[in-house]
Amino acid sequence: MTADPLVLSAELDRATARLLDTVRTLDGNGLVAPSRCEGWTRGHVVTHLARNADAYRNLLSWARTGVRTPAYASPEAREAGIAAGASRPHEEQLADLVTACDLLRESIDTMPAEGWTTLVQWGTTRGEPSPPVPAARVVWARICEVELHHVDLDAGYGPADWPESFTLRILHDPATPRVATLVSDNGTRLLTVADAPTVTGPAHVLAAWLTGRGPGTGLTSSTGELPSLEEWK
C-alpha cells in the first residue's frame, strides 16, 4: 500500500466527492439531526470536516514555509470553532466545506517535493503532545477524517461503502487498536498480532469495529468474545 501523498490525493478526491454528494442532500432540517458522534448534530460533523481541512492546510503551510503553524490554535479553539459553525444554514455549511476542501487540495497540489518530508505536529493526542510526523501523512489523515466522519453523518453512507483500499489501509494504521489477529471471512490473514485472539469477519466490518464505527456484529473471536477496545479517535 502506497504512502505517496500524490497517489493518495486521488483517493482523497474521490472520498471528498462522495462526502459532498451526501452533504448536498442534507438540506432543510438535515443538519440539525443527531449524528453518530455523541453530543454532535450532523452540522457539528460538517463544520468539523471544514475546520479540519483548514487545520491540515496549516500543517502543509508549516511544511512548505518552515514557519511553525499549528493545526489548531488550541484544543479549546478547535471545539469553539465547531460549536460556532454547527447551527449555520445548510447552504452556508455546504459552501464552507467545499471551499475548505478546495483550498486543502490546492495546498497539496502546490507542495514542493521536499516539503513532504518536513516533520509537523498535529497538536495533542489524548491530552499529550503528538509525536512529529512527516507532512506526507496529512493526506492519509484527511482521508481517514473524511471516510470515518462520512459514516458519522448517519445519512446512508456506511462502512460497507468504504473502498477496499481504505478498509485494508485503516486496519494497518498505527492509530488502529492492535488487539487481535484479523482474518477476513474468505480466510485471508489481514493482520497478525502476537499473543492475541483471532477475530474473523468481513474486512469492512472489522475496520468499522476497530474504529468505533460498528459493534462488530457478525465477527467471531477465537476466545468466544470480542476483545475490548479503547477509543480509536
Word description of this protein:
With 233 residues, this protein is of the alpha+beta class. Helix 1 (5-24) packs antiparallel against helix 4 (90-109) and helix 2 (42-65) runs parallel beside helix 4 (90-109). The chain is 46% helix and 8% strand. The chain has two domains: 5-157, dinb family like domain (Four Helix Bundle (Hemerythrin (Met), subunit A)); 164-221, no CATH class. Strand 5 and strand 6 (189-191) form a beta hairpin. It is globular and about 50 Å long. The chain has helices at 5-24, 42-65, 75-85, 90-109, 137-152, 164-171, 203-210; strands at residues 119-120, 124-125, 128-129, 133-134, 181-183, 189-191, 198-200, 220-221. Keywords: Isomerase. This is Maleylpyruvate isomerase family mycothiol-dependent enzyme.
Helix content: 40-55%
User: H/E order of the elements?
Assistant: HHHHEEEEHHEEEHE
Class of secondary structure makeup: alpha+beta
Structural domain count? 2
- Backbone CA Rg: 18 Å
How many strands? 8
CATH superfamily of the largest domain: dinb family like domain
In which order are the strands of the major sheet placed? 6-5-7-8
Distance between the termini: 22 Å
- The fold-level CATH name of the largest domain is Four Helix Bundle (Hemerythrin (Met), subunit A)
Number of helices: 7
pLDDT averaged residue by residue? 95
CATH architecture of the largest domain: Up-down Bundle
InterPro entries: DinB/YfiT-like, Maleyloyr_isom, MDMPI_metal-binding, SCP2_sterol-bd_dom_sf
GO molecular function, one term: isomerase activity
Pfam family, one: MDMPI_N
Protein name: Maleylpyruvate isomerase family mycothiol-dependent enzyme
